[in-house]
Amino acid sequence: MTAHPESDTPAKPARERSTRQFQAVRDELARSGDFRSAQDIHAALRASGATVGLATVYRALQSLVDSGAADILRTAGGEAVYRECGDTHHHHLVCRSCGRAVEVQGPAVERWADDVADRHGFTDVSHTVELFGVCGQCQRQQQ
Q1: Does 43 score more than 90 pLDDT?
Q2: Which band of pLDDT confidence, cut at 50, 70 and 90, is reported for residue 17?
Q3: Structural domains of the chain, with CATH
């Protein structure tokens, strides 16, 4: 799996719904630490007996992204994939083979971004940094 990050935009005010379907999507997203597609989440919900439409899954995921509760990446094929997000600004280390993701802090990146923006007279700058590699488990399986 090769993913390309979406642009890093400041979180918008939460418009999260409190419906049963929204909560089911949120709970399913929380069950996995990996990035998953809306279709995968929808299939898992249907398999568990939940009656949630795919359009509802997409709306719920977008609401979670807008509120900062979920991260979104684009795969090499252009598909959006989602993952429950931590509360602080972070970056990701993502396995190209299995899609496993780890949240990482990057204080040096933050200082560099602030410095570049300042030198060029920019304010209200956001950024996304994603690192891609092969995790230890996938390395062992490839041997």
Answers
A1: yes
A2: low
A3: 3-142 (1.10.10.10)
